[in-house]
Amino acid sequence: MSPRERVRKAISHQEADRIPVDLGSTLVTGIQASTYAKLRRALGLKDEPVKIADPFQMLSYVEMEVIERLGIDTIGLWLPTTIFGFKREGWKPWRLFDGTKVMVPEKFNTTTDEKGNIYLYPEGDTSAPPSGKMPQGGYYFDVIVRQEAIDEEKLDPEEWVRQQYSVFSEEELKYLERTADALYKNTELSIVGEFVDAGFGDIALVPAPMVRYPKGIRDPQRWIMAHLEHPEYIKGIFELQCEIALKNLELSYEAVGDKIDVIMVSGTDFGTQSGPFISPDMYREIYKPFHKRINDWIHKNTSWKTFYHSCGSIVAFLDDFVEAGVDILNPVQTSAKDMDPKMLKERYGDKLVFWGGGVDTQRTLPFGSPEEVRRQVSERCRIFGKGGGYVFSAIHNIQQKVPIENLMAMFEAVREFRY
Fold this sequence. Notes:
Pfam families: URO-D
GO molecular function, one term: uroporphyrinogen decarboxylase activity
Strand order of the largest sheet: 3-10-11-12-13-14-15
Protein name: Methyltransferase
Radius of gyration: 21 Å
Keywords: Methyltransferase, Transferase
CATH topology: TIM Barrel
InterPro entries: Methanogen_methyltrans, UROD/MetE-like_sf, Uroporphyrinogen_deCOase
């Protein structure tokens, strides 16, 4: 069975010959560059600079030689532009604080202050205020909130959306078409598409790190409060954003067709470690109608499955996610309150595909023993894999300082697992 066939079985709630595995197909199933460099060395591959796919989280591209050696079943069709507004092209060398050699896009332009903090700029424009900060000794960038003074009597949804979202250009569509064709013809991997336009309220995007001088409510705390104080403003933004997203979905489908199996629609977190960010009623009023419009279009016009990422304790939203047409749930944060794996599989295993939940990246993977990692991976595969509807990946991205023995134990355990 090919990787593409294996994933298609799993996302159709059928058992394949084995559980499919994802590493690096999305911005939320990736691996931090320093850890990826260690993984390459452990696999006996040439020690060379790691190519950065996502400068925000300092995630590496996962190369074909690693995909083949580890038995990975997926690959990402990423958009040409990063969260900081510059393209993934024209590579140049850079180095992380721990000495890891990486390759970054040509417009990855930085400055350093007297304390050693590194600043990154929207579209690579160092004449604008920086939009990202890597603290001295850090491993990834924090988005900088550049909140201008706001006249709350003159909040303008159109201004907010116009700065951040637009209909795909011919150049972008040609890139998607060309890249999808190459991935489909030259690999047997299941292709996962990136689509950020429908990530309504994604806290990583609200500060607009890709925009030189963002307008409107951009502070995440103010944004959350605006759900209560200015709900019509939030809805107005989502309405305009949804119109652009639907147009871009139509154009994307014309460009790539059914070559992709899955599309990552949203990365908006609705949960914290201990409970929801917002109430279920607020989700139903503000978010659910837009999620449903997006998912309904995808299901009516394509064969794609919809992939939604939401960290934290989100049990309170799952029935609404199902009603809104969510097909795939990630990262399945079983370390959060009430996110018990057995309960999730029993209650939602026939309604949602679980993509993640394979190992706890907060405790077990970085701090457990290799045997503890193996036990947890095997248990999760046994629970989530039964009857299909499961793609293995860690809970969110694999972070820095994970012992390589634990990482190898994770891949070995899922490879050895049998239903």
